[in-house]
Design goal:
With 501 residues, the chain is α+β, with helices and mostly antiparallel strands. The chain has 3 domains: 175 residues, Beta-Lactamase; 71 residues, no CATH class; 164 residues, Heat Shock Protein 90 (2-Layer Sandwich). Helix content is 58%, strand content 17%. Strands 5, 6, 7, 8, 9, 10 and 11 form a 7-stranded mixed beta sheet that branches. The chain has a 4-stranded antiparallel beta sheet with strand order 2-1-4-3. It is rod-shaped, with a radius of gyration of 64 Å. It starts with 7 loop residues before the first helix and ends with a helix. The mean pLDDT is 86. Bound molecules: adenosine-5'-diphosphate. Adenosine-5'-diphosphate binds next to helix 9 and helix 10.
Length: 501
């Protein structure tokens, strides 16, 4: 585990132990170095004093050139101050007498001693001149070994280290016992924060123990919780009111929808009833006018005949309008039934051409079949397909110039058959393109328009074609006439064969 991941309690313990150990070791070092320097200086002074005394005592031996006596004097240094060797020289510097004391030289030293000789100087040598008045009669040189001093030093250092360890352990022990003063407030703060995040209960508060930094932290934490609690409450109230508003709106909307549905139903019923009620007398009127203008009551004066023709034409327009309205109504209500039968498309197109020819003649227009696709089968309601073709053919005739041709073609594209009606009239204004299939939309919607119509034909045609699984469209450029087409999915010939069987 990394140091930074340890608990605060452990970090505190480590810190205490580390600090105490550092402090004790630092004190031990200062103390030991001071002691070592003192002892070294004392040893040096003592050795020098001894050299003086021995020098004084050896002056006579030097004066009488008696090395034996001098050696005896030197030997008196045995057992003194760890002295290793003593050497007397005469006035010319030549060796006069020497005493070497047995030391442990050559014997195996303990490890600690080995170590100290590596770290510190293991010998101390002092030299002094021996004077007789102003004359130098010789010299003395004493060498002592110092390892005992260093060993003492090492021992005291080892003792210090032991004391450091003991003190550190004591510091950790007492520190951990007193940690509660520091760590308890932090741990309690952490506990409250943990509970808040787990239970999402912002009414909880941390307990403040003192006025130190942790106390300030507890204050800030509690203030933050209060703010969150207030916002939480406001949010809850807002959500509740929002839910209420949504419920209210939904209820309003439901009511509005029900009202609209009721109104729509009333409108549909009204439209159906009125159209039906209009159609019955209109059929009688149209029939009567037809009979009279056909000469059933005798020859009519030309003017009356003319007036009757106008009346006949207008009653016919009214009948168309009523039929269209009823169709639209049925389509919107989904009441229009489709009797889908798989059959050849060409006969249906040809029948439509024949049926609409007389209407086209009113405008001096002729229908021409320019391309056929015999044998192509489609699954359609023949009456509805006829209605679509009648609308496209009558529009083409109606919007063609006098004495014109309208070309009809039937093409086969992969799995579809396309029926096209092309006229050479004025075409459809660009701005009207997007609205052409909408109900009651006419490029010329003015009261003074020349051509009759309801603006419902194309809307009905699109609905019918789509219900039979096809698509409808047109191309037109102003002044270039128009091409209206619809495409139906082709049925495989096999289907027809099965039906025939
Ligand atoms: P209606 O012909 O009864 O007005 P339609 O829905 O069949 O209604 O046609 C809507 C309008 O589209 C027409 O009033 C006319 O402005 C335009 N339109 C349809 N076919 C043609 C055409 N072949 N050429 C020019 N305009 C057309």
């Amino acid at each position: 585990m990394k140091l930074r991941d340890l608990s605060i309690v452990r970090k505190l313990g480590l810190l205490l132990a580390f600090n105490t150990a550092i402090a004790v070791i630092a004190i031990a070092l200062v103390f030991s170095v001071g002691t070592a320097v003192n002892r070294y200086q004392a040893a040096q002074e003592q050795l020098m004093a001894m050299a003086n005394v021995i020098g004084e005592n050896s002056r006579a031996a030097l004066a009488f050139s008696d090395p034996e006596s001098a050696r005896k004097i030197l030997l008196s240094l045995r057992n003194k101050l760890e002295i290793e060797s003593a050497r007397l020289t005469d006035s010319s510097g030549n060796e006069f007498a020497t005493a070497i004391f047995s030391t442990a030289e050559g014997a195996t030293k303990p490890l600690l001693e080995e170590l100290t000789t590596l770290l510190f100087p293991d010998r101390l040598t002092v030299a002094n001149r021996i004077q007789d008045g102003n004359n130098t009669v010789g010299g003395i040189e004493l060498t002592a070994h110092l390892s005992n001093i260093w060993l003492d030093l090492m021992e005291s250092l080892a003792l210090m280290v032991l004391i450091a360890i003991a003190l550190s352990a004591l510091a950790v022990f007492f520190g951990l016992r007193m940690r509660r003063i520091v760590t308890d407030p932090i741990l309690s703060l952490a506990d409250v924060s943990h509970r808040v995040s787990r239970e999402r209960d912002y009414s909880l508060r941390a307990t403040k123990v003192g006025n130190d930094e942790i106390g300030a932290l507890v204050d800030d934490f509690n203030r933050m919780l209060s703010e969150i609690e207030i916002r939480d409450e406001a949010l809850r109230r807002e959500r509740e009111s929002l839910e209420e508003r949504v419920e209210q709106r939904t209820a309003d909307l439901k009511l509005a929808m029900e009202t609209a549905e009721r109104a729509n139903k009333v409108k549909s019923e009204f439209l159906a009833t009125v159209s039906h009620e209009l159609r019955t007398p209109l059929t009688a009127i149209a029939g009567s006018i037809g009979l009279v203008s056909g000469g059933a009551l005798g020859e009519l004066p030309a003017q009356i005949h003319q007036m009757l023709l106008i009346a006949q034409k207008n009653s016919q327009r009214l009948t168309f309008l009523i039929n269209d309205l009823l169709d639209v109504e049925k389509l919107m209500a989904g009441k229009l039934q489709f009797d889908m039968v798989c059959q050849e498309v060409m006969p249906l197109v040809e029948q439509a051409l024949v049926a609409n020819q007389s209407y086209a003649e009113q405008f001096g227009v002729t229908y021409t079949l320019t391309h056929r696709s015999d044998g192509v089968l489609v699954e359609v309601d023949a009456q509805r397909l006829h209605q679509v073709l009648a609308n496209l053919l009558s529009n083409a005739a109606k919007f063609s110039d006098a004495v014109a041709q309208v070309e009809v073609s039937v093409h086969q594209y992969e799995s579809r058959v396309r029926i096209e009606v092309r006229d050479h009239g004025a075409g459809i204004p660009i701005e009207f393109h997007s609205r052409i299939f909408q109900k009651f939309s006419q490029a010329d919607a003015s009261d003074t328009r020349q051509r009759g119509g309801t603006g419902l034909g194309l809307a009905i045609s699109r609905e019918l074609v789509e219900r039979m699984g096809g698509t409808i469209g047109f191309h037109s450029e102003p002044g270039q006439g128009a091409i209206f087409y619809f495409e139906l999915p082709m049925k495989p010939a096999q289907v027809e064969t099965e039906r025939a069987a």
